[in-house]
Write a structure and sequence with these properties.
The chain has about 425 residues and is an alpha+beta fold. About 30% of the residues lie in helices and about 25% in strands. A hairpin with a 3-residue loop joins β1 and β2 (about 35-40). The protein binds adenosine-5'-triphosphate and manganese (II) ion (MN).
Length: about 425
């Protein structure tokens, strides 16, 4: 007999029929004549009852929390059971009897983080990971629909993409390499062959600050394409985000509800997004009492304050070139301004950075020198401007930051299964 998924049982597919399920004990309560078991599998939870007269009684007695088992019984509709159905068990076979499970109610955040490998079994993490997987699907579908080709850039790299301060060194045989901070430069290589390209890959940042928006390893959704300008870039990014939010609201409704997420926040994400220039953003901040000067980068506090004006995702564009990376294209008539754009959301601030890339070899060399970088480290990157250069744009969106906002997570570490931060890398 095939095994039934709990979710299918709760949907009523097996009413009054015999089923066999496999899963783990979530809860157990013993009465005189009846043992109640709540069993979970990847799809949900169901209550099972074992009568004293049943041949399954002695196994049910032995079962401990988180033991794995196979259980056979009859599905009965029962309005008192959570989910509306329960299984009257006829036979149980214990697969793996669990020792005393260390996670119980009312434990500290700290302890739960220490036993991450066990906490991942929790319903909360199960739901977040399912939504995360769906968001990856929605993202890929959107890129594909727009004619992008998925690619897989390397994680070991020989020269920095972003600033050197967040670079991880790796001993690579006799040499020193780095872990990539972004796949952008590699996507730029590939546009000369595939044109529209994207990747979903890890990026590494040696971030010492402990914030709700920084990991040392995160998943970066990056797109790059030729023959495009800033208008194309912003239209693409806003359409991608709206697509992800609408699809998630439409297809993950039950999971969102169980996580107590405000779904209306997601359905409210429609195009076009509000857009303000960096200069306008500075004026807004000055009006609300900030002490910042034109030319300063925005920190988390400034970004949060700006977001209060919009209460939904929005763009800030045309940042000063001095606070942007060497590859950012600058206005020909205003070299102090970069053709760049960040997407910001309430509570979190920046979730993506994009822009036009400098396509002129001479200006690019100037920028490399200005930033104190070595021209020879970027020789292959300069080749892209030597042989058939094209105007092009691209962006990077942090998957976990997006999830923190979409799912109202308190901390970015819950947006992925195995968070890496300054202090956490176990298991
Ligand atoms: P911030 O200044 O907020 O630390 P950044 O401007 O250095 O970020 P970018 O280089 O623009 O980051 O990276 C693109 C996107 O990758 C960011 O908008 C963000 O969504 C994500 N990201 C960057 N650093 C991290 C990190 N340490 N942890 C998680 N996501 C990150
Ligand atoms: Mn950025």
């Amino acid at each position: 007999m095939p095994f039934a998924k709990i979710r299918k049982i709760l949907e009523g597919c097996y009413e009054n029929r015999k089923v066999t399920i496999r899963g783990w004990i979530y809860r157990k309560r013993k009465g005189k004549a009846l043992i109640f078991l709540i069993i979970r599998d990847s799809s949900g939870f169901i209550q099972c009852t074992v009568k004293r007269a049943s041949p399954a009684w002695s196994e049910a007695e032995q079962l401990t929390i988180e033991s794995s088992l196979q259980l056979e019984g009859i599905v009965k509709p029962d309005s008192r059971a959570p989910g509306g159905y329960e299984i009257t068990a006829h036979s149980i076979s214990i697969i793996g009897l669990a020792e005393l499970f260390p996670i119980t109610k009312d434990q500290s955040e700290e302890f739960i983080r220490d036993v991450r490998h066990l906490w991942l079994r929790s319903r909360r993490m199960n739901l977040i990971m399912k939504i995360r997987a769906n968001i990856l699907d929605f993202t890929r579908a959107f890129f594909r629909q727009k004619g992008f080709t998925e690619t897989t850039p390397p994680m070991f790299i020989s020269a920095a993409v972003e600033g050197g301060s967040t670079l991880f060194n790796v001993k690579y045989f006799d040499q020193n390499l780095f872990l990539t901070q972004s796949s952008q430069l590699y996507l730029e290589i590939l546009i000369y062959s595939l044109e529209k390209v994207y990747c979903i890959a890890p990026s590494f940042r040696a971030e010492k600050s402990r914030t709700i928006r920084h990991l040392t390893e995160y998943w970066h959704i990056e797109g790059e394409w030729p023959f495009a300008d800033m208008t194309d870039l912003m239209s693409f990014e806003e359409a991608l985000l709206a697509h992800i939010c609408q699809q998630t609201a439409g297809k993950c409704g039950e999971e969102l509800e169980e996580l107590n997420v405000d779904i209306s926040k997601l359905t409210a994400v429609t195009i076009p997004f509000p857009k303000i220039s960096y200069t306008e953003a500075v004026e807004l901040l000055l009006k609300s009492g900030s002490k910042l000067k034109w030319g300063d980068d925005f920190g988390y506090e400034e970004e949060k304050k700006l977001a209060d004006n919009f209460r939904k995702p929005f763009f800030v564009y045309d940042y000063p070139s001095s606070i942007k990376a060497f590859y950012c294209k600058t206005y020909r008539d205003r070299p102090e301004i970069a053709l760049s754009v960040d997407m910001l959301v309430p509570r979190i601030g920046e979730i993506s950075t994009g822009g036009a890339r400098e396509e002129d070899k001479e200006i690019l060399i100037e920028r490399i020198k200005e930033m104190g970088l070595k021209e020879q480290d970027y020789d292959w990157y300069l080749d892209l401007r030597r042989y058939g250069t094209v105007p092009h744009v691209g962006f990077g969106l942090g998957l976990e930051r997006l999830l923190v906002w979409m799912l109202d997570l308190e901390n970015i570490i819950d947006a992925l299964p195995f968070p890496r931060t300054t202090r956490r890398f176990y298991p």
